[in-house]
Amino acid sequence: MAYVEITKETWAFIDAHQHEDVRDVALHARRADGVDVPFALEQIAGRQRARVKLPDWAAIDGLIFPPQVPMEQCSSQFTALYKARLAQRLVESLRDGTPHTADVGRPADASGDAPAGRTTGHPPAATSLIDLTGGFGVDFSYMAQVFDRATYVERQPLLCDIARHNLPLLGLTHANVVNGDSADVLRSLEPASMIFLDPARRDDHGARTYAIADCTPDVLALQETLLAKAPVVMVKLSPMLDWHKTVADFDGAVAEVHIVSTGNECKELLLVLTRAHVDAPRVWCVNDDQVLDFVDAHPVSFAGPMPPDQWRYLYEPNASIMKAGCFDVVERRFGVRAVGRNSHLFVAAEPVADFPGRSFVIESIATMNKHELKSLTEGLTHANIAVRNFPMPVAQLRRKLKLKDGGDVYLFATTDARDRHIVIRTVKAATRYSNVL
Fold first, then answer.
1. Any idea what the Cα angle at residue 17 is, between residues 14 and 21, rounded to 5°?
2. Which of 33, 174, 187, 341 sits between 20 and 30 A of 148, alpha carbons compared?
3. Looking at the whole model, is its pTM more than 0.85?
């Protein structure tokens, strides 16, 4: 539909029912003069989803929200802001006339604050962004704020119509909307400071795809063309990808890898491609305000195990670190020791400040010996149970221990450095020892 034809009666209906259950509204809605009820219901549902996912957008009157699938696939406000901060750092280095890799040791800001906006004064040259996969425009709207010019490209006419309506309401008067195939449009556009792509991860039948070559557009096939058009290319990919293989597939073009999580759930994998050959990219593991960065060189061996009688604190890395697999970096950076080579759990004799993950105080440890387990679970009716490199799934272990889910106690079942199957009883450190953590 042509969104310029939305009537004031339709907007009034949306405003009147925006806080109601959309199913109830649909059940009782009557077709009134000038009200497009199906469109209004779609907007009420979209605005309600946006209050959780995009609170800044939900607060702006008059924005149009797309059908359910694009709304589900779009970035959250946190991840969009993170990309904007990253883009801001990259464009600042371009304005300074220095390669962005010279600034590689400075992590992208993971805060929830909005970007500072376009630079004023007299920069050496105007900067520009091309988003080849505009979609609903969430990523584009945040990143465009830090460029002097921005071009949104999208092959679906419906989403282009929505973008033309929404972008001025978001203050992006310097943005241009282009409807077309990304690969075709890319060849016709002028060079830019940065290109962004979020390849579609569904095939023609709607099934999810994860390999880069199976996504649309195929970034690997377009790599040379992309880097000929811009010195920096940012690519958003599925967190399901093997990022080491993905970096290898780009054959030295990846300067940075960003593994972005929020609420301890890995949301996306961002790659920054440059024209310079890079032997070892810098990797950022981000989970809300927790940031760990390192150079992905050859890993060193793990430190020796710590005697169990010295274990006082247990640490579980966040989702981004789990995805990165940088457990040797965690040991060196925070002075902790791995419980076992494949446990992905760490212990220390003293509390560790600012560990990027969850922290626990160890109360007791047991092997799978019946009497030791009985002593470990004495007085317990409920516990939160996790298994790491352990031969028994959570449900089976819960039945064996005769415990219900929940409570303040956390049990970690794993395999230690001596290949013993053990269960570690803990409580959260922040609640019990907030004075030292």
1. 125
2. 187
3. yes
